[in-house]
Specification:
By secondary structure, the first copy, chain A, is of the alpha+beta class. In chain A, 16% of the residues lie in helices and 43% in strands. Chain A has two domains: 103 residues, Thiol Ester Dehydrase, Chain A; 92 residues, Thiol Ester Dehydrase, Chain A, CATH 3.10.129.10. Chains A, B: One of its GO terms (molecular function) is acyl carrier activity.
Chain lengths: 217, 217
C-alpha cells in the first residue's frame, strides 16, 4: 500500500489532493498469492502497477521479489473512488487516473467471490472493538485491520504450524470508530487446508475472505 | 527497540542466543521526552547506547535526531534479564553484557514512579483481549502494546487535539496470550495536561504510566 501511495505522491495525486476534491481511494478486493515469505533481514523489492481501469474500478497489481528477481508474492487489487460525504462509490475522475497511464477498458473483471460460511458450519468467534489507531484518512477502518481480526480468531497452534499461501478478501461495508465487530472463521483441514472468514458489525456483513494454508515443516 | 536489537546482533548477542541460555531481555521502565515529532518523509537518526549496568539492571538511552542533529526525542530505559522458565529476574550474565562495553556501577538508579490513579478519581475504562500478534519472543505481551491500550482508552477528540510530550511507563507484571486486560485513565486538564494510566488483568496491576501532553495548534 505504501508503494502505491509513493507512486501517487510522485504523480501529484496525494491523499490530501484526493480528499480536497471530496474523494478517497478505497480497496474492495485483494487476491494474494504467496510463494515464499521473506527471511529476516532479507532485502526485497516491492513493485506496483496501476494496470487498468473502467468507469468505476481500478485494477492494480503488486509484487514482492527477492533481490535477484525471484517472485515471493503477488497481489491483484481492486480500487474504487469513494465520495467522502455520500459514502458511495463515484465514477473515476480523469484527473485522478490519467497520470498513472493505466489502460482504459470497458470490461469489468469478474473476480471469484470468497467462499461464505454456511449457516450450520462449526465456527470460532472473537469480538473486537474498533480502536482509534485503526482509522485511516477515509475515516473508516483501514483494510489491514480486517486481516488482523481474521488471523487472531484462529487458534494459536494453527497459526504456529501453518503459513498462508493464498487469500481472497472482499470488503463490502465500511466499519467505523468504536464499532463492535465479530470475526468468525470456519476451518477446513482436508486435502486443501482452508479457512473461511467473515467480519460482521451488528448491522452488516462487512468483509468476507477465503484463505489457503500450507503446513510448516 | 530495533536499533537496540541491531546493536545486539552486531555484537553477537542475538535474541536466539539469549533464549538458548534460558533468558530473555525484558524492559521494566521507559522515560520518554518528546521535543518535536518527525514530519512525514523526514529522515531521522535513531541512536542508542547501553549506558551502564549493575547486578540486576541495565540502563540504556535512545535518541531520535533530525538529519542535521536536532534532538527530537530521547528515552531512558531499564532492562533486566528474565529467567524464561522461572519467569523471574536473573543476575546479569557477564557474557551477555561485556560485549556492549557498558559501564559497571554499584548504584541502582532511583527513577521516579509514575503517578497512580487514586481510588475515587474519575476514570475512563476500555477492555482488551490479548491477541496472538501481541506476543513476543519472551512469550508475553510486547511492551509496545501496553502503549496501544493506554492511548486507545483516551477520547478521540483528546487524541486529535493533543500531542505527547513526556511519558513515564513502568512494567510490573507480565501479561499473556488471551488474558483480558482493563485499561484505565484519569485525565487532568489543569496548567499541566496530564493523563495517569493503569493496565490490570483480573489478577494484578501490570503496568502504570504518567503522560504529559501539549495542545496542538
Amino acid at each position: 500500500m505504501l508503494a502505491s501511495q509513493d507512486q501517487s505522491n510522485e504523480l501529484g495525486i496525494t491523499v490530501k489532493k484526493v480528499n480536497e476534491l471530496g474523494y478517497g481511494w478505497v480497496i474492495t478486493q485483494h487476491m494474494i498469492d504467496i510463494k515464499r515469505l521473506p527471511q529476516i533481514y532479507e532485502r526485497i523489492n516491492v513493485i506496483t502497477e496501476a494496470a487498468s481501469y473502467n468507469r468505476y474500478f481500478c485494477y492494480r497489481d503488486f509484487w514482492i521479489t527477492s533481490e535477484d528477481g525471484e517472485e515471493l508474492a503477488k497481489m491483484h487489487s481492486v480500487f474504487v473512488l469513494m465520495d467522502q460525504s455520500k459514502r458511495k462509490i463515484a465514477r473515476i475522475l480523469p484527473e485522478l487516473i490519467d497520470p498513472y497511464a493505466s489502460e482504459y477498458t470497458k470490461k469489468i473483471e469478474r473476480l471469484p467471490e470468497p467462499e461464505k460460511i454456511v449457516a450450520d458450519e462449526q465456527v470460532r468467534i472473537k469480538k473486537y472493538q474498533v480502536r482509534f489507531m485503526d482509522i485511516d484518512s477515509n475515516q473508516h477502518v483501514n483494510n489491514a485491520h480486517y486481516f488482523d481480526w481474521m488471523m487472531d480468531v484462529l487458534p494459536a497452534d494453527f497459526l504456529m504450524s501453518h503459513s498462508l499461501k493464498k487469500m481472497n478478501i472482499k470488503y463490502k461495508q465500511e466499519v467505523h470508530y468504536d464499532d463492535k465487530v465479530k470475526s468468525s472463521v470456519h476451518i477446513e483441514e482436508e486435502e486443501v487446508i482452508k479457512t473461511v472468514h467473515q467480519i460482521k458489525t451488528e448491522q452488516a456483513l462487512c468483509c468476507t475472505a477465503e484463505c489457503e494454508w500450507k503446513t510448516n515443516h
